[in-house]
Amino acid sequence: MRKELLVNAAPPETRVALTEDGRVVEVLHERRGRQGLVGNVYLGRVHRVLPGMQAAFVSIGLDRDAFLYVEDVARRAEEFDFGDGSAAAAEAPAERPRIDDLLREGQEVVVQVTKDPFGGKGPRVTTAVSLAGRTLVYLPEAREIGVSRRVADEAERERLRRLLEGFGGDGGFIARTAALGKSAGELAPDRTYLTELAARIRRRRDSSGPPALLHRELDLALRSVRDVAADDCDAIRVDDPGTHARVKELLDAVAPALSRRLELWREPVPLFDAFGVEAEIENALRSRVTLSSGASIVVHQTEALVAIDVNTGRFVGRSGLEETVFAANLEAAPEVARQIRLRDLGGLIVVDFIDMEDPKHRQELFERFEAELTRDRARTRLLPLSEFGLIEMTRQRSRGNLERVLTRACPTCGGSGRVRTDVTGALDLRRALLRPPSLFSPGEKVRVRVSRGVAEAVSDDPAILADAETTLDIKVELEVDDAAPPGGFSISRG
Predict the structure, then answer these.
(1) Of 240, 282, 278, 233, nearest to 259 (Cα)?
(2) What is the pTM of this model?
(3) What strand order describes the sheet that includes 172-175?
(4) Which tens digit of pLDDT belongs to each residue from 158-195?
(5) For residues 263 and 234, what is the distance between their CA atoms, to the nearest angstrom?
(6) Which helix (H) or strand (E) covers residue 430, if one does?
(7) Tens of pLDDT along 24-76?
(8) How far apart are CA 167 and CA 175, in angstroms?
(9) 3-state secondary structure 461-475
(10) 31 in helix, strand or coil?
């Protein structure tokens, strides 16, 4: 599989896309003044302890206090996420202490952001600081060592553990997937960089008062090169000379082999246009995705979960219903997995595949979908395919997904995605005119500004307003307002 990382750096926005065999599978955005907070380290002050929720609010200098759960105070090093979607295995302690035993109001505490603010919630933080390099994660306040779960070979896992044990000194280390096959000498630059970074954070902590920013995570371009561009990345293309220079400096220090695959895009065609990224972003903002066979996928995001529905659409197959449905589901499985990554969907996700009767088909579909998700950097958990054809899964969410970054709630429909029909608007107008107590005098002319659709609905059925005019002894004059929302109207006198 050919992988390429594309970096479009055009202030005030940086965008990064990852392609696999020419298809876009991830798109990341960062805008000036709206950089993400994940990875930032702060010296904060406990604002409020909530025993009933086993959590605390921590002031870190933002508009909203950060939220600190008890499990994020007492987390073990092996439970960290590494930024490449992997984690080290560990069993949770049998019994955790209570939040009011660990923290008190007014206490100073060093925290790291693990989730950006979402909706009306502040950022989520942890006291277990982890500093990510390309091949290692350093845990300044821990002593444990670990290896990413994505390193499946037991012999390699044991080799990496022995290398980490030989590091000695303060703090713990986790080997990331990029450490696979690396020697101690190849890991040394990361170790030096991370321990020096931890020392700088300690010095800032000792000389600062809360709230204070102790460490800011790398910007999107450098962070993506560190976390997304693995050793199997065939090319890294950057379209801005300044960003290209910063990326080259980073790669020369931590991944010289990748540095040779770095390219400055000089073509007249914009980078994202040349590789079809702009079109993929536009398609990802639509709810429906059509497959080559004619089947389709519908993605709908709600506050509680993301629902993904698979439909046969125009695909009618050739043999029988079971085979047609099975073929449509198999075609949809990799595209569903790609859309989840492309849109960066997180939290609870329910995929409604088309019902199948054959148990072998159901098992094959589940295994195919599970295999497709192994390419995802974000952590996922799946439940087996239910008897109703549903797959329930959770996916790690730390930053806002593509839809929330690029769009906002519709001011006309209030974010519901639905608007009143023209006939509904006309009937609402009729009720508004007749609603007591009447605001109009007999013989009065009432001006109503309406959308073009409402005007056409009244024209098609004049009886909608006729009884209101007769009952109130008024004359309703409609004026078309092309700026009015669908089904909308406004009433004025005279």
Answers:
(1) 233
(2) 0.82
(3) 131-132, 136-139, 172-175, 145-147
(4) 999 999 988 877 889 999 988 988 999 889 888 998 99
(5) 11
(6) helix 422-434
(7) 999 999 887 777 899 999 999 999 999 999 999 999 999 899 999 999 996 54
(8) 12
(9) CCHHHHHHHHHHCCE
(10) strand
